[in-house]
């Protein structure tokens, strides 16, 4: 079994309630984001006389750790502190073994591992395993005012929702095989990395 | 500012439990990070709370009522959770990012901690601690002196929306017992809207938001519910449902708002202050292509064409005559509108046909566009298009005003009656300080011919309008600083806001999470209403609630017993709920509310505004003078004649070129139109000091990439923004998502002048003009010409 996230980005208003709820649950200081919501912009403007003609598109993407099938962070970690749990595929981190080298931070194409300068170690999204084990949903799933995030067995999520991980503004999924399904905003499906992420 | 040491409770205790809470600044951050690390993932656990307390987010987003489920351990809030009960038609009231960041608000280092009195010059921000007894005495003495010297017109209970609910009633209750106070009408949010719409409709009728799912086309004007009220159950939720149900959504806005990003099929950027020109051209296309619903206009409206004008109206004064240019020789063609609005003519033609031919179509406005120099005009302009397309009184259509909600009963404590009948437009309080006795009906003064006194006493509770949210900070500062003008200012608030710096007596308030709180029922969430919040934690510091403060002042004035009637705050709240129950059978009792404080809605059918009028206009006339929809308003014509400003206050809605609009010659010097939208990370100025929300969206000015390139500005650069009124230094976000020639500096940032008087935080009112609108005398906050340069 492999846990993963579904994001209905088509309707995401970018409120970042998921981001704040995650910070609240994990007591994260400013600068530490297990889940973050990035804006993507594309298109441009042309003036014709006094009129402005544009083809601007923009949307939000809420992304945390995607608990990848081939996690780059685990491969990069020299001490084994970053590991993938066999029973549910969650990518977890053992602080006791972390030397704070940040190899995982540089390796991850989704900015999931967060280096905490206060303690010189890394920490990251753990899929709210304490909540999940208690029969609850991850806090970001509960928090979304419009219920646009889902969590569970990625195979079940793929059966339940339309989606892709090939989304403009996200890394090429072939690199790490993320356990991620995104219902893309119109015009968002495309080649990896383009436009401006903000 | 000198703040006293806090002794009542230990900072260390909070920081240990609160973690990232900024109670002792940076030092607590490490603990926040460490706790997660120490747990490691597999052993991680959320601390087990001692208790879970339901409370309500009380900031004034217009949604008002999201449920907060506070997890409390050792008398400290350790987590914020929310409602999860979804029912068909009634989504759970899930808190938004602001409510979720509540811990950073409650445990903010900016909290006021004990009563203080001013020791420096007013506005300098120098205070020294006093006792509550001294505070009550100072307020009572000054209130008594000012009423005896100047009369009750001199006492002003200031507009504020930083906290709401029943607590607000305490000040009117006290002041009414002392002979009353000068009132205000309108709000900073909606002055032009609530003033102008009744001239068309006799009121503000609407279809409720849940009716949007019945629309095939929705056109949103100045409507950004996804950012202003992102909490569950509000307008954006229904816009999303409508989109899912297959409606096409078009957003007209100078910004590609987050709402537009999420749900718009098309975004039509437009220059601020020019929406009426767009609407006039849409009407032109409909009229010349004969796409309008003449039968509806003939039956239900006054003044669309010359055949349906009231007898007093001059010839060629109808809306149709204006649009066709029969009086002024200027037909309001798409070409004409393109030059003004920046919207391409072919877009206007296509939009007009789409609106006219798609049934039902909901044309929906919100409040952004009525906060400009001629904010009365768009409010009345969109209903004309709704009438021209026959969408009024039908499912999936609407009145062209705002969509709305279903009402719920509202508890209150008795405030008595104000013996003073005088009221001023809300925006004009600074003018009433300087020349109150000179104000007349022409200035919008109501209830009396003249005021007996200028404002001499201000009670500012839970508000930041004293400087931050009022136009022209430099001039407001000048007026407030002069102690010979307004002689005494009480500020009672949770935070050390910019407005608090102007207090003579500065009092610390409890947050709503530290006191018994009754929700307000006037703007409910689709029938759901959250009513009762019990205190989650012991109040921090030496704070007192507004009821306690008013009771303390009443005691000093010798009317303590009369004010309290021997009752505690809880007694009043119980009585208020009992009164609601008496009027609304089935409403939960106090005891039931203690068990489940959320009152769930039952009203499933949407409200269809003016349905009965449209069904039978003879039997169900509107409360306008004609009983019909007044596209031409005789009342407005008369008022404009009295005020002598017919050019600015026409009887039909019109495009009026705005001062500091795109057609003002001043644009040569200050080429950028600056707007200040309501940003998602704050509610007005509340939460501006919240570090988690600053991370969500740092205060920046947004500039189009073309304007930025012209100025050599790169994304993230510091820039200066200025005009003749002031200067701001702020970081710049370079973006495609705003129209060229327009910049956006979100309103509400805390005014932070440096030694040279330059605002270094990004308070838009540093550059906005004090210039009341011609009708409502409302605030024109989105009307600013500025220049921007790299710093």
From TrEMBL, chain A:
Cofactor(s), names only, from the UniProt record: [4Fe-4S] cluster
Alphabetized UniProt keyword annotations: 4Fe-4S, Electron transport, Iron, Iron-sulfur, Metal-binding, Repeat, Transport
Disordered, as annotated region: 168-198
Domain 4Fe-4S ferredoxin-type: 3-33, 57-87, 89-118
Annotated PROSITE patterns: 4FE4S_FER_1, 4FE4S_FER_2
Keyword Iron: yes
Residue ranges of coiled coil: none
Stored InterPro entries: 4Fe4S_Fe-S-bd (IPR017896), 4Fe4S_Fe_S_CS (IPR017900), DMSO_DmsB (IPR014297), ET_IronSulfur_Cluster-Binding (IPR050954)
CDD domains reported for this sequence: DMSOR_beta_like (cd16371)
Biological role: Electron transfer subunit of the terminal reductase during anaerobic growth on various sulfoxide and N-oxide compounds.
Full protein name: Anaerobic dimethyl sulfoxide reductase subunit B (Iron-sulfur subunit)
Organism: Symbiobacterium terraclitae
UniProtKB/TrEMBL annotation, chain B:
Domain 4Fe-4S Mo/W bis-MGD-type: 50-110
Enzyme Commission numbers on file: 1.8.5.3
Name under which the protein is recorded: Anaerobic dimethyl sulfoxide reductase subunit A
Family per record: Belongs to the prokaryotic molybdopterin-containing oxidoreductase family.
Region of interest (Disordered), residue spans: 396-416
Keywords: Iron, Iron-sulfur, Metal-binding, Molybdenum, Oxidoreductase, Signal
Required cofactor(s): Mo-bis(molybdopterin guanine dinucleotide)
Keyword Cytoplasm: no
Organism domain of life: Bacteria
Classification via NCBIfam families: dmsA_ynfE, TAT_signal_seq
InterPro entries attached to this UniProt entry: Anaer_DMSO_reductase, Asp_de-COase-like_dom_sf, MoPterin_dinucl-bd_dom, Mopterin_OxRdtase, Mopterin_OxRdtase_4Fe-4S_dom, Mopterin_OxRdtase_prok_CS, Prok_Mopterin_Oxidored, TAT_signal
GO-annotated molecular function: oxidoreductase activity
PANTHER family: DIMETHYL SULFOXIDE REDUCTASE DMSA, TRIMETHYLAMINE-N-OXIDE REDUCTASE
Entry annotated with the keyword Oxidoreductase: yes
EC class of the enzyme, as a word: oxidoreductase
Annotated Pfam families: Molybdop_Fe4S4 (PF04879), Molybdopterin (PF00384), Molydop_binding (PF01568), TAT_signal (PF10518)
SUPFAM superfamilies: ADC-like (SSF50692), Formate dehydrogenase/DMSO reductase, domains 1-3 (SSF53706)
């Amino acid at each position: 079994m492999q846990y993963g996230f579904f994001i209905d980005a088509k309707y995401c208003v970018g409120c970042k309630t998921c981001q704040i709820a995650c910070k609240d649950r994990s007591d994260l200081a400013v600068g530490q984001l297990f889940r973050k919501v990035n804006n993507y912009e594309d298109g441009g403007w042309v003036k014709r006389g006094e009129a402005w003609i544009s083809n601007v598109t923009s949307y939000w993407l809420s992304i945390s750790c995607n608990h990848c099938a081939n996690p780059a962070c685990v491969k990069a970690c020299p001490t084994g502190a970053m590991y993938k749990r066999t029973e549910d595929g969650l990518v977890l981190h053992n602080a006791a073994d972390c030397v704070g080298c940040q190899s995982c931070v540089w390796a991850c194409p989704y900015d999931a591992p967060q280096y905490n300068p206060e303690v010189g170690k890394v920490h990251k999204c753990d899929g709210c395993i304490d909540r999940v084990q208690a029969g609850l949903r991850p806090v970001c799933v509960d928090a979304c005012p419009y219920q646009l995030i889902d969590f569970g067995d990625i195979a079940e999520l793929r059966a339940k929702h339309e989606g892709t991980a090939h989304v403009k503004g996200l890394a090429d999924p072939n690199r790490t095989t993320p356990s991620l399904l995104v219902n893309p905003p119109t015009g968002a499906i495309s080649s990896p990395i383009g436009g401006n992420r903000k | 500012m000198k703040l006293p040491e806090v002794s009542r409770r230990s900072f260390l205790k909070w920081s240990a439990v609160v973690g990232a809470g900024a109670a002792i600044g940076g030092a607590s951050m490490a603990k926040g990070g460490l706790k997660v690390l120490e747990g490691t993932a597999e052993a991680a656990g959320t601390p087990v709370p001692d208790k879970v307390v339901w409370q309500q987010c009380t900031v004034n987003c217009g949604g008002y009522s999201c449920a907060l489920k506070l997890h409390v351990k050792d008398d400290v809030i350790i987590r914020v959770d929310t409602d999860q009960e979804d029912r068909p038609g009634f989504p759970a009231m899930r808190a938004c990012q602001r409510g979720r960041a509540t811990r950073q608000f409650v445990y903010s280092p900016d909290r006021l901690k004990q009563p203080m009195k001013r020791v420096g010059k007013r506005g300098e921000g120098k205070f020294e601690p006093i006792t509550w007894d001294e505070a009550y005495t100072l307020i009572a003495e000054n209130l008594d002196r000012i009423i005896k010297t100047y009369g009750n017109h001199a006492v002003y209970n200031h507009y504020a929306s930083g906290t709401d609910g029943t607590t607000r009633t305490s000040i009117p209750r006290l002041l009414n017992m002392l002979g009353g106070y000068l009132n205000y009408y309108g709000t900073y949010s909606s002055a032009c809207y609530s003033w102008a719409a009744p001239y068309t409709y006799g009121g503000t009728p609407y279809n409720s938001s849940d009716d949007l799912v019945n629309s095939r086309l929705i056109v949103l004007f100045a409507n950004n519910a996804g950012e202003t009220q992102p909490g569950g159950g509000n307008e954006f939720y229904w816009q999303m449902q409508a989109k899912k149900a297959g409606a096409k959504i078009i957003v007209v806005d100078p910004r590609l708002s987050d709402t537009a990003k999420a749900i718009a099929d098309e975004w039509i950027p437009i220059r601020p202050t020019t929406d009426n020109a767009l609407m006039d051209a849409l009407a032109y296309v409909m009229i010349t292509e004969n796409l309008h619903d003449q039968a509806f206009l003939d039956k239900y409206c006054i003044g669309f064409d010359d055949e349906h004008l009231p007898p007093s109206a001059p010839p060629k004064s109808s809306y149709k005559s204006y649009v066709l240019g029969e009086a002024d020789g200027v037909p309001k063609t798409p070409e004409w509108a393109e030059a003004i609005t920046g919207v391409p003519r072919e877009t206007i033609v296509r939009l007009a046909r789409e609106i006219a031919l798609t049934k039902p179509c909901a044309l929906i406005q919100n409040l952004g566009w009525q906060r400009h120099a001629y904010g009365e005009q768009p409010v009345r302009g969109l209903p004309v298009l709704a009438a021209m397309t026959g969408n009024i009184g039908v499912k999936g259509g609407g009145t062209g005003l705002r969509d709305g909600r279903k009402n719920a009963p509202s508890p209150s404590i008795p405030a008595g009656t104000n013996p003073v009948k005088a009221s001023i437009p809300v925006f004009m309080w600074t003018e009433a300080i300087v020349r109150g006795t000179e104000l007349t009906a022409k200035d919008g003064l109501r209830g009396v011919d003249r005021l007996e006194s200028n404002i001499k006493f201000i009670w500012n509770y839970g508000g930041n309008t004293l400087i931050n949210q009022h136009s022209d900070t430099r001039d407001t500062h000048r007026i407030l600083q002069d102690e010979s003008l307004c002689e005494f200012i009480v500020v009672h608030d949770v935070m050390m806001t910019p407005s608090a710096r102007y207090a003579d007596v500065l009092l610390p308030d409890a947050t709503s999470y530290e006191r018994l709180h009754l929700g307000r029922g006037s703007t409910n969430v689709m029938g759901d209403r959250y009513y009762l919040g019990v205190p989650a934690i012991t109040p921090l510091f030496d704070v007192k609630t507004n009821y306690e403060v008013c009771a303390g002042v009443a005691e000093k004035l010798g009317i303590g017993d009369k004010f309290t009637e021997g009752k505690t705050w809880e007694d009043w709240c119980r009585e208020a709920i009992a009164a609601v129950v008496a009027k609304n059978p089935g409403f939960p009792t106090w005891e039931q509310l203690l068990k489940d404080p959320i009152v769930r809605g039952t009203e499933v059918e949407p409200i269809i505004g003016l349905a009965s009028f449209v069904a039978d206009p003879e039997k169900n006339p509107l409360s306008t003078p004609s009983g019909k929809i007044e596209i031409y308003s005789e009342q407005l014509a008369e008022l404009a004649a009295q005020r002598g400003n017919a050019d600015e206050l026409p009887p039909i809605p019109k495009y009026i070129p705005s001062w500091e609009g795109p057609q003002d010659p001043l644009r040569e010097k200050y080429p950028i139109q600056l707007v200040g939208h309501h940003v998602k990370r704050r509610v007005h100025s509340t939460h501006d000091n919240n570090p988690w929300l600053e991370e969500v969206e740092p205060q920046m000015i947004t500039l189009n990439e073309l304007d930025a390139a012209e100025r050599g500005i790169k994304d993230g650069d510091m820039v200066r923004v200025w005009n003749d009124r002031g200067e701001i230094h702020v970081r710049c976000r370079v973006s495609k998502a705003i129209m060229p020639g327009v910049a956006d500096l979100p309103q509400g940032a805390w005014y932070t002048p440096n030694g040279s008087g330059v605002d270094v935080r990004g308070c838009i009112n540093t550059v906005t003009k004090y210039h009341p609108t011609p009708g409502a005398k409302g605030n024109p906050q989105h009307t600013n010409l500025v220049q921007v340069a790299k710093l």
